[in-house]
């Protein structure tokens, strides 16, 4: 939900917003809808088996929602401020939600995920093939090279693993999703549905689908606008 790879400048912006991130109504609403869409995606979540990475995890809001349905989750984000908030949530789990403590065996990682092997030490010889599912919400539009990032994420999937991507769709008005003062560090003003389908297919994924999952009504510099959100998914063979 926050920064991911090439965007060091926006990483600083997300650091500044981290402490109040969870207070934003649009963040809470889109995260809840993304969570619901992921649960309805058709993947057979198993609280005793399913291993998840959340890429661009922000403060871990989506990971916390998914935790009861999975065995473990690792959060990865380029913003140190966001990871600090997420880590504090995990540290507080023995008091706030002790039943979820075991779901977070790994410390959230504040890294620019941009090459294989950066998660070495978590499993395997180079960190590859670790996860049954990789989920990402409101992160892809911050990535310059979507094909390269998708190719990289696929390497972290186990055989038959699944990649699920939630982000707002590119439309005639989608650039107004962010205020104009942030346009300089937004790589894509929305994600093109057909292009994303092609990207997942070229990454070697099967059973690819890209569907409109929900719509967000949001006040913007151009008035109240409607932003459709996509849920894309594909499975590794």
TrEMBL record:
Compositionally skewed regions (Basic and acidic residues) per UniProt: 13-22
Protein name in UniProt: Methyltransferase domain-containing protein
Comp. bias regions, Polar residues: 1-12
Gene3D superfamilies from the UniProt entry: Vaccinia Virus protein VP39
Keywords: Transferase
Disordered: annotated segments: 1-22
Pfam families linked to this entry: Methyltransf_23 (PF13489)
Signal sequence bounds: none
MF annotations from Gene Ontology: transferase activity
InterPro entries in UniProt: SAM-dependent_MTases_sf
